[in-house]
From TrEMBL:
Residues 37-262 form the Glutamine amidotransferase type-2 domain. This is Amidophosphoribosyltransferase. NCBIfam families: purF. InterPro entries: GATase_2_dom, Ntn_hydrolases_N, PRTase-like, PRTase_dom, PurF, PurF_N. The keyword Cell wall biogenesis/degradation does not apply. It comes from Pseudonocardia ammonioxydans.
Length: 529
């Protein structure tokens, strides 16, 4: 027996009160890429798995701040609780105490396919013909979503849930449940997973078994951890640390893992072709996470050192754009011999909010998030280190703010190469036409943001800092080399499964938008600084 519920929803859910009136969020204050999602799963009889999952998701909050959910099974039924908002907003002590069981699947979401609605929050849920429930969390983005939609449409004798979800993850859950009718969940997954193309790190579960799977390229991270009385799977090692799990290994590309009372078993569903996302090292992952045995923090510091070698400047002080630019700024200071300092204060409590700012406050823009330390900045020639430039709006406002605070010179250094191509594997960049580096060279970008100089780390030096072979990394957003073939443009886009027209891209500087004009999140891009 299985059920899905939320605050105002019981077994057969309708739109909850929380989703009836959804105010438009305020424009985002940063131009950085948006993280994709975080997944967490635990099989641990005798442990408080709902609270363990809560804290695991808390550690992964940076990967998705639109919605959160937890599914828990006690061996007889699965209960799903999810809502829009941060992990700490969605769950309270009473809710977690009501989610009793021995295994759980958790998810925090940033949308890459499908709008920000309650229905699209995860874990997704389906019931098999035998009455067993399947709850699934997905990090990444598929590129054959249109094909999967057609597959679901051809299912005989099954009716899509009334949840009105419009995500690739929901399609996967539907197909997984349909196959389980005859094969069981494990064999259904073994048949379905080879048909998925794109990036997917999955955690899913029925009433008795926790599963984890990773695409053959291993684009998004997924790790396995050991508890004294169970197992954990998570997007990052930092989530293992917070629940006291010891790191065992990464879930291998092309691997399906199943964990139940009989132990852990593993099968390959595809030949591994590793192409991990290099941007996980640059920006997405927490600095206290390890990927492929390499510390993310150490990688970012090393990128900063190499950036100083490639783009030195005569200046007085190196400051980061907190928090993501901090390790690279430390490395830049070490590599250049310049002093390091904090010239910007970040409001640690600025997160996703649904409260509309007044026009007066909106005009303050970046000051809601960052404010200059004038006594540190005044009269100084600054090197300002940031993780990336996507549209350039934040850097433009930041340079202006630093000059107003008394900086004599502002030299911007970026700990990644120019972002010239959209990502179709789970990061929300804009369409190609909206990426500032696509239509301008370095000097053009420098003039646009108003800095005295601008320097990006090269692809080769960024890769070298990761200590991974170039052949095992995806650098598509920097070099346009997509390791997983893309379908035609009509079969791509965030709103593919919705009755919403995709935004029309204006094209590149050459006037030809090319085959990659569509980008995830592009519909909102121009309304977000």
């Amino acid at each position: 027996m299985s059920s899905v519920r939320n605050e105002h929803v019981s077994p057969a859910p309708t739109t909850p009160a929380a989703a009836v009136s959804e105010p438009e969020p305020e424009p985002e204050l940063e131009s950085g890429p948006r993280e994709e999602c975080g997944v967490f799963g635990v099989w641990a009889p005798g442990e408080d798995v709902s609270k363990m999952t809560y804290y695991g998701l808390y550690a992964l909050q940076h990967r998705g701040q639109e919605a959160a959910g937890i599914a828990v099974s006690d061996g007889r039924r699965t209960v799903v609780f999810k809502d829009l908002g941060l992990v700490s907003q969605v769950f309270d002590e009473q809710t977690l105490s009501s989610l009793q069981g021995h295994l759980a699947v958790g998810h925090c979401r940033y949308s890459t396919t499908g709008a920000t609605t309650w229905e699209n929050a995860q874990p997704t849920f389906r019931t098999t013909a035998a009455g067993s429930g399947i709850a699934l969390g997905h990090n990444g983005n598929l590129v054959n979503t249109a094909e999967l939609r057609d597959d679901v449409g051809r299912l005989e004798g099954r009716r899509r849930s009334g949840l009105r979800a419009t995500t690739d993850s929901d399609l996967v859950t539907e197909l997984l449940a349909a196959g389980a009718d005859d094969l069981g969940v494990y064999e259904s997954a073994m048949r379905l997973l080879p048909r998925l193309r794109g990036a997917f790190s999955l955690t899913f579960a029925d009433e008795s078994t926790l599963y984890a799977a990773r695409d053959p390229q291993g684009v998004r991270p997924l790790v396995l951890g050991r508890l004294e009385r169970g197992w954990v799977v998570a997007s990052e090692t930092a989530a293992l640390d917070i629940v006291g799990a010891s790191f065992v290994r990464e879930v291998e590309p092309g691997e399906l893992i199943a964990i139940d009372a009989d132990g852990i078993r593993s099968r390959r569903f595809a030949v591994p072709e590793p192409k991990g996302c290099v941007f996980e090292y640059v920006y997405l992952a927490r600095p206290d996470t390890h990927i492929s045995g390499r510390s993310v923090y150490d990688t970012r510091v090393e990128i900063g050192r190499r950036l100083a070698e490639e783009h030195p400047v005569d200046a007085d002080l190196v400051i980061p754009v907190p928090e993501s630019g901090t390790p690279a700024a430390i490395g830049y200071a070490q590599g250049s011999g310049l002093p390091y300092g904090q010239g910007l204060v970040k409001n640690a409590y600025v997160g996703r909010t649904f409260i509309q700012p007044s026009q007066t406050i909106r005009q303050l823009g970046i000051r809601l998030k960052l404010n200059p330390l004038r006594n540190v900045i005044r009269g100084k020639r600054l090197v300002v280190v940031d993780d990336s430039i996507v549209r350039g709006n934040t850097q433009r406002a930041l340079v202006r703010m630093l000059r107003e605070a008394g900086a004599l010179e502002v030299h911007v250094r970026i700990a990644s190469p120019p972002v010239r191509w959209p990502c179709f594997y789970g990061i929300d960049f804009a369409s190609r036409a909206e990426l500032i580096a696509n239509g301008a060279d370095t000097e053009g970008v420098r003039r646009s943001i108003g800095s005295d100089s601008l320097g990006y780390v090269s692809v080769d030096q960024m890769v070298a800092a990761s200590e991974q072979p170039r052949s095992r990394l995806c650098c598509a957003c920097f070099d346009g080399d997509y390791p997983i073939p893309l379908p035609e443009e009509a079969q791509l886009g965030k709103n593919l499964l919705e009755d919403v027209p995709e935004p029309q891209a204006s094209g590149s500087a050459s006037g030809d938008p090319g085959p990659l004009a569509v980008g995830y999140g592009a519909g909102e891009a121009l309304s977000r600084p």
